[in-house]
Amino acid sequence: MAYITLNRAKLKKNYEYLDNLFKENGIEWAIVTKMLCGYEPYLKEVLDLGIKEVCDARISNLKKIKKLAPDVQTVYIKPPAKREIENIVRYADASFNTEYRTIKLLSEEAKKQNKLHKVIIMIELGDLREGVMGDTLMSFYESIFKLPNIKVTGIGSNLNCLHGVMPSHDKFIQLSLYEQLIEAKFNQKIPWVTGGTSVVIPLLQIHQLPKGINHFRVGETLYFGTDLVNHTVFEGMEPDVIRLYAEIIEITRKPVVPIGTLEANPSGEKFEVDTNDYGRTTHRAILDLGLLDINSDFLIPEDASFEFVGASSDMLVIDIDDNDQGYKVGDLIPFDLKYMGALTLLNSEYIEKKVI
Prior knowledge:
Strand content: 25-35%
Structural class: alpha/beta
Cofactor: pyridoxal 5'-phosphate
Number of helices: 10
Oligomer: single chain
CATH architecture of the largest domain: Alpha-Beta Barrel
Pfam family, one: Ala_racemase_N
Largest sheet: 8 strands, mixed
InterPro entries: Ala_racemase, Ala_racemase_N, PLP-binding_barrel
Protein name: Alanine/ornithine racemase family PLP-dependent enzyme
CATH topology of the largest domain: TIM Barrel
CATH class of the largest domain: Alpha Beta
CATH superfamily of the largest domain: Alanine racemase
Keywords: Isomerase, Pyridoxal phosphate
Number of strands: 18
């Protein structure tokens, strides 16, 4: 059975790297846990690090976090759906927002629950996912400040999440200026300018992040040590906090070219024959996971010598050529993971999860 592991020591090392980096720069930060898909043993490992604020995009996950660590501040990090308002106020201390009508509903629900709900207003900086447009910002804030049981605690942005627009010094100067204008016009203090995510860390390291950006939300770099700008791993961080191990369930020498009339497979793919491959054979190994669990594009094999052939719903086929490595049935093949790969594996009920 394929399984994934979370390495406690490597997770702690990456956490301490980031915690020291942010403390040196006077920045508060939160851990984003949405990749863990609410798996409680992994959530507990993250919470045991000592973080004071956790962000997630699923209410069910925040509910588990509140059960495990009631004193940790929970933040719902996407604009709330109308039908989730009651639970958002119940389990999220704060939420990201872009719609007045939604915040009004949060206000009404917070009053019912006798709570003060914090909101972070997300601003559009060009990636065109969630965010209030700059030309409506002042009127938007004016209406929000009038709502009871609501406290505006932040202004924020997301970049590189949809269209790949990269963060820059100029974009964050713009975000900081918005915060200053709002504070000056309404005489309201906004504590957090939360522009920082994993992709922004390189700007911080080269001292190109404006001082006004004082809050980060980090997930990917914590789990993979990833420098998302330079496509490397930060020196001093670990890339494999989370790893996959897939078991070989068959090894057989087979022809390279399929035998018979070819049509599209269940994934809609049609195999194209290279005439140079006629008569060639190679060892093919089948691994005990498939498209139901992960797309091979998100797998980084420790052994770079083999090639991915294809996958069906529950089996992944690799070409190991002459099998000089001596693989046999029952062996485990280790993989590092890209973020989206880890996300899909953690969301799968069919992949065992371990802490090491």
